[in-house]
Write a structure and sequence with these properties.
With 602 residues, the chain is α+β, with helices and mostly antiparallel strands. It has 4 domains: 194 residues, Heat Shock Protein 90 (2-Layer Sandwich); 122 residues, Ribosomal Protein S5, domain 2 (2-Layer Sandwich), CATH 3.30.230.10; 48 residues, no CATH class; 158 residues, MutL, C-terminal domain, regulatory subdomain (Ribosomal Protein S8, Chain: A, domain 1), CATH 3.30.1370. Strands 5-4-3-6-2-1-7-8 form an 8-stranded mixed β-sheet. β4 and β5 form a beta hairpin. α1 packs across α4. It is globular, with a radius of gyration of 32 Å.
């Protein structure tokens, strides 16, 4: 048997490396934008077509390259950033391994035009799928212009795994946001299909946040700042009242490099304990300035994951700095023992005549009469809330108050009705010789899923209630792309919604039974569930994913203690569904308790 081990050709090596570095068009956008930032550019322009599949072009006014560098930059591990392994632990630039351009050139057709400011003539290089085509002098602006065409054309197996144009464009938008946020001092322009989406002028971080996500972020965020010997923390965090149902604007940057870190996210989320509900997420734009020797950025090909030398200390510093920022700007009341029990006293103006305080008495006051009136008021208030009262203790009936006894006796009679609330989550229904324990949330989810899916498949609009005054809502750029993608489906589900431009939408009507004040939270919840299901349910059709997202958020908005009529209506709608006992995710909607299986519990 002969030798079986052999060296791979460079073209194959580059394609394998490209699979690690360039996962989708957004990955190429990230690498090219980072190269432009590292070149010292002050103006960077991004142009894409067909969500980056047909064209990605990045133009900058940076330092440019010589003829030799223009050819050498496409070779594997050719870099100007490091010379030894030790240099990795002092790196402050975005890229340093010299693999981005080689990986991109292995799976696309690349055209490079570059000129150093001191040169009169630039250099033009063309490479197709790792094959060098030509290099010649050219006239071009100072800086670099690089065009990437037909990404993954020579790797069809990789191309079929790309998502729709809308999804891929959303990923590109996210990468653009990350680079633009990390460098507010630079000018960025973003063109999609020859339409200018963004023109960001240099400014500070707050101005850049407002330019990307809307001017209302001026009042939605508070600054955070903390300086220690280990790390400096700065940026902005969202106020709790503006927390959203989606995880959109959440950014960590270490030495201006975007990172993902669940441990640090947990620290920040913990600082908001008791300020947010479980399904709400605060916005944050947090920057860490730390010595490069204290971190390792070389653990992941895309460099979005970083190892910290003292991660637990940074966790504690971040958590305390977030709490300090929330308290300092009166988002939560700070505890000041010096002011405990103190009363605000306005200064007395000079010359003011002080009067002795007097006490006014009501000679007709009868405390016994007032007690009787107060007792009657208690009885009246209980009568208003009879649906929420539950009688589990017969001794409560032996009260000396006639009014209260009357109310409780009425509730005792209702206790023997067919339906009974247990709490907001569960209902108990007597049916012949069975008891049905119904999960109200899953019951609503089942109902809304089937109703929504039917409307989507038949392209018919569900009933909606008109808004007295149309309301305007605004989303982040990435979420606005999703709304545009599913706007027709939203209309089928009962949302009368129209695009108003610049990430803004007008709501003319909402699904029946929905409070108009919660419509933005509802749509944001649908977006969040849609993104999650889209990433998980690769084989599921679009209508199924949207119906799941809609049903989940609508069910959450309907959880409450139901009246007798509402319970009967819920059961009637549930048992009109196909297979009412199973929710869309195959969980049980209700369980049956019979005398036989009840005996087993004893």
């Amino acid at each position: 048997m002969g030798d079986v081990i052999k060296l791979l050709p460079d073209s194959v090596i580059n394609q394998i490396a490209a699979g690690e570095v360039i996962q989708r068009p957004a990955s190429a956008v990230k690498e090219l934008l980072e190269n432009a930032v590292d070149s010292g550019a002050t103006k960077i322009k991004l142009i894409i077509k067909d969500s980056g599949k047909t064209l990605i072009r990045v133009i900058d006014n940076g330092c440019g390259m010589s003829d030799t560098d223009a050819r050498l930059c496409f070779d594997k591990h050719a870099t100007s950033k490091i010379s030894t392994a030790e240099d990795i632990f002092s790196i402050l630039t975005k890229g340093f391994r010299g693999e981005a351009l080689a990986s991109i050139a292995a799976i696309s057709s690349v055209e490079l035009k570059t000129r150093k400011p001191e040169n009169e003539v630039g250099c033009h290089v063309e490479i197709e799928y790792s094959k060098f085509i030509k290099q010649e002098p050219c006239q071009c602006e100072a800086g670099t212009s690089i065009s990437v065409r037909n990404l993954f054309f020579n790797v069809p197996a990789r191309k079929i795994f790309l998502k729709s144009d809308t999804v891929e464009f959303r990923h590109i938008m996210e990468e653009f946001h990350r680079i633009a946020l990390a460098h507010p001092e630079l000018e960025f322009t973003f063109f999609n299909e020859e339409e200018k989406l963004f023109h960001l002028i240099p400014g500070n971080l707050k101005q850049r946040i407002m330019a990307l996500f809307g001017s209302n972020y001026d009042s939605k965020t508070v600054p955070v700042a903390e300086k220690t010997d280990l790390v400096n923390i700065s940026g902005f965090i969202g106020k709790p009242e503006y927390a959203r149902k989606t995880r959109g604007e959440q950014y960590f940057f270490v030495n201006r490099r975007f990172i993902k870190n669940n441990y640090l996210h947990h620290a920040l989320q913990t600082a908001y304990i008791e300020l947010l509900s479980k399904d709400s997420y605060p916005s944050y734009f947090v920057f860490f300035d730390i010595k490069p020797s204290k971190i390792d950025v070389n653990i992941h090909p895309t460099k979005t994951e970083i190892k910290f030398e003292n991660e637990s200390f940074i966790y504690a510093i971040l958590k305390s700095s977030i709490k300090r920022a929330l308290g300092q700007y009166n988002v939560i009341a700070p505890m000041d023992f010096d002011q405990e029990g103190a009363f605000p006293i306005s200064p007395v103006k000079s010359g003011t005549v002080l009067k002795q305080p007097t006490i006014q008495l009501n000679p007709d006051y009868n405390p016994f009469a007032e007690e009787t009136k107060g007792l009657q008021r208690v009885g009246l208030s209980l009568n208003r809330d009879t649906e929420t009262l539950q009688v589990n203790n017969p001794s409560l009936l032996r009260r000396e108050t006639p009014v209260l006894e009357e109310v409780l006796l009425q509730e005792e009679k209702k206790h023997f009705n067919w339906h009974q609330n247990w709490n907001k989550e569960y209902m108990v229904v007597s049916y012949l010789d069975k008891l049905l324990l119904i999960n109200q949330r899953l019951a609503w989810e089942k109902i809304f899923f089937e109703e929504g899916l039917e409307s989507l498949e038949k392209s018919k609009h569900m009933p909606f209630q008109k808004e007295l005054f149309p309301q305007t809502i605004q989303f982040s750029a990435s979420d606005a792309v999703i709304v545009l993608e599913i706007i027709n489906e939203l209309k089928c589900l009962g949302f009368e919604i129209n695009d108003f431009g610049k990430q803004t939408f007008i709501i003319y009507g909402v699904p029946v039974g929905i409070d108009s004040g919660s419509v933005q939270n509802l749509i944001e919840g649908i977006i969040e569930n849609y993104k999650y299901n889209q990433s998980k349910d690769i084989k599921n059709p679009r209508n199924l994913i949207i119906a799941k997202s809609y049903a989940s958020r609508m069910a959450a908005s309907h959880l409450k203690l139901l009246s007798l009529e509402e319970r009967e209506s819920l059961l009637e709608r549930l048992f009109l569904c196909q297979n009412p006992g199973l929710a869309s995710d195959s969980k049980k909607v209700y369980v049956e308790v019979t005398p036989e299986n009840l005996d087993k519990l004893f």
